[in-house]
Amino acid sequence: MMQPLMPKATAVWLIDNTVLTFEQIANFCELHKLEVQAIADGEVSVGINGFDPVLNGQLTRAEIERCEKDPKTRLTVTQSVLPKFFDPIYRPKYVPRAKRGDKPDAIAWLLKHVEHLKDAQIAKLIGTTKDTINKVRDRTHWNANNIEARHPVFLGLCTQRDLDAAIEKAGGNKVPPEQQLASISELP
Fold this sequence. Notes:
Helices cover 51% and strands 0% of the residues. With 188 residues, the protein is mainly alpha-helical. The protein has 2 domains: 63 residues, no CATH class; 98 residues, no CATH class. Helix 1 packs antiparallel against helix 2, helix 2 crosses helix 3 and helix 7 packs across helix 9. The two termini are 43 Å apart.
């Protein structure tokens, strides 16, 4: 079961606006039954404004009424009907400053071991530009003397699943285990 947004504020609202039992509210908000009772007594969460789970779309009024009639039933979170618009391969990601210097190493590994990947795929996978990829390929990168081919998964720049999906999309097979093991030995 998924925890509701702002569980204590949701519990405050359910206590004030429904006749649900403390146990039902505790199960829904993933709180302890005694904590819900303390909220109702005013000992805990004083000053928290109630958060309406019906307006937020986490519950329906019919679900609350169903559970008010039978104290042994449990509230269930309403599933969202909104479509999920993200593609796990091309999700935006943040790369910490400490790892940004590792991008040329990962590019060199991909150029060496997975030649059939297109520059656009490498750019999306690693989070870099085509200009940087060309500079690493041509050895004109400002730090070309210090670039070592290192596996992008071990550097934390992408996941193995993302790498395999990009390789399969490019029409190749997954990275063979011997190349994965070879890249492990290249680690410092």
